[in-house]
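ENTRY TYPE: paired fold submission
RECORD: A
CONTENT: sequence, then structure tokens
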Amino acid sequence: MANESRPCPCDIGDRFDYGGRGQEVQVEHIKAYVCKPPASTDKAVIVIHDIFGWQLPNTRYIADMLATNGYIAICPDFFVGQEAWKPSNDWASFDDWLKTRDAGKIDKEVDVVLKYLKDQCGVKKIGVIGFCWGGAAVQHLMLKNPHLKTGVSLYGVIRRFADKHSLLHPTFFIFGEKDDIIPLEQVTLLEQKLKQNCKVDYEVKIYPGQTHGFVHRKREDINPQDKPYIEEGRKDMINWLNKYL
């Protein structure tokens, strides 16, 4: 299977020409991008980036969108200063690169961010969303972090947590029907396992005709045929957060 040898052979997609409305801050040992809504709020969303890192304009665009919807959005550098993956890198070296960036080993950074949100921003309710690598990280956090209220995993690499389904918090899983990296049989298996083991609310949704990264790496003006699904994915994500935060 292609995704066994190249677990995330993802194309960076349509890079947004977007500057961001938030600011970069230092939170203890990590840098983070923070965007706040116009009105004060006690709700926040941690945004977990994909392999292309915390500075990708596309990810900041989504963080700003969350702020527009009333949330403090924070996108920390979960690679902690290590280089993000570049489209020009050799995929043959991807496995070695990934070994030092484990989506299941971000707990220390998450604790630091949670403390910052509570102490510096007065936040009481916190959710998390993540894309691809970050989607796998969301599943990890939903399995073990008691301080988060809900999560949205967008095309999170399922194989990373294939045997773990006892989620602590309501979780929404977004997948594309034509995702080369996450075959539909893996999504079906995830649904079966959740049905058997999960005691909290969850939803698994597959968007017709969509490829990996469609919610944040596709520009709707370049892909008019995908626009309804890009918009639907973003709306579903916001609705889920609104429901549980």
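RECORD: B
CONTENT: sequence, then structure tokens
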Amino acid sequence: LNDTNPRSLIVRLCDVLSSLRIHGVVFEDDTRSEAVAQILDFISAQTSVPIIGVNGGSAIVLTPKEKGSTFLQLGSSTEQQLQVIFEVLEEYDWTAFAVVTTLLPGYEDFVDYVEVLTDSSFIGWEHRGVVTLNLTDDPEGARTRRQLREVTAQIRLLYCSRDEAEAVFRAAHDAGLTGPGYIWFVVGTNLGGSEQLPEH
């Protein structure tokens, strides 16, 4: 199913489900759209057919799911990604960090979960603040570069979409914040894909 606009996706899946005896669906797509996961979750809840999302938009982890949904996603949630990152930070004794986010939906939950992880830990974390970037109001990146320079921590946890990551790293590179001594951890449910993020 290459056409993943909502109407086409729903119509095609319903056609398949109604015409064949299906015990489950394994779904893979090349998009990075969370809408695909939401549609699959809805279809699973309405039809009681198990659906497994293995790549692309279908694997973007949704929480919570629709009541009655049997939609399994093979991806990691933002919370799981953060837990792993904090284990790495602890292992290397990198206790001072800052949080950088865009206005990507879920950024407030991301900030809240960072606070939960640091407040409930016996590690002496030094949380040096949160910077929220508004990339749409800053097409040239001047404000973004200025805001990134104001962050005093060399360890940065970035929450954003894949497209936003490219803009943030371009601004960080221009501001001299991507060389030796700067460590960025990029967190998000929509960062996968076969292409790599830009190297800076």
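NOTES ON RECORD B: The two ends are 35 Å apart (CA to CA). Residues 95 and 165 are 23 Å apart (CA to CA).
STATUS: closed
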